[in-house]
């Protein structure tokens, strides 16, 4: 049986996808590399858990926050 995805969940997925794309562009990574990096160093978890606050902030600040979170978890860009 199919379930209809809520609009809020759809917006969250689209926002996280946008962040992965922007992170890849900013740090000159492929989309796969950006996804793997953000996943390995807790950036995707951060976006999921902090969506309510992050999606209201500028994309530039979100990229800075992702770099900081990933750095705290062992990432080094």
Give structural notes.
The protein is mostly helical. The protein has a domain at 10-54. Helix content is 71%, strand content 0%. The protein is built from five helices and no strands. It starts with 6 loop residues before the first helix and ends in a 5-residue tail after the last helix.
Topology:
Layout lengths: L6 H20 L4 H10 L2 H7 L1 H4 L4 H14 L5
List keywords for this structure.
77 residues; mainly alpha; 5 helices; 71% helix
Concise overview:
By secondary structure, this protein is mainly α. It is built from five helices and no strands. Helix 1 crosses helix 2 and helix 1 packs across helix 5.
Overall pLDDT confidence: 94
Low-confidence stretches: none
The largest β sheet comes out as: none
What is the tally of beta strands? 0
**Helical proportion?**
over 70%
What is the overall shape? globular
Give the SSE string: HHHHH
Percentage of residues in DSSP E strands:
under 5%
Q: Evaluate the radius of gyration.
A: 13 Å
Termini Cα gap: 43 Å
User: Helices and strands: which structural class?
Assistant: mainly alpha
H/I helix tally = 5
């Amino acid at each position: 049986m199919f379930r209809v995805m809520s609009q809020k969940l759809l917006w969250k997925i689209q926002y996280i996808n946008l962040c992965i794309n922007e992170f890849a562009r900013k740090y000159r990574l492929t989309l796969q590399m950006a996804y793997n990096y953000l996943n390995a160093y807790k950036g995707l978890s951060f976006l999921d858990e902090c969506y309510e606050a992050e999606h209201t902030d500028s994309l530039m600040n979100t990229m800075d926050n992702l770099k900081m979170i990933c750095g705290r978890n062992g990432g080094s860009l």
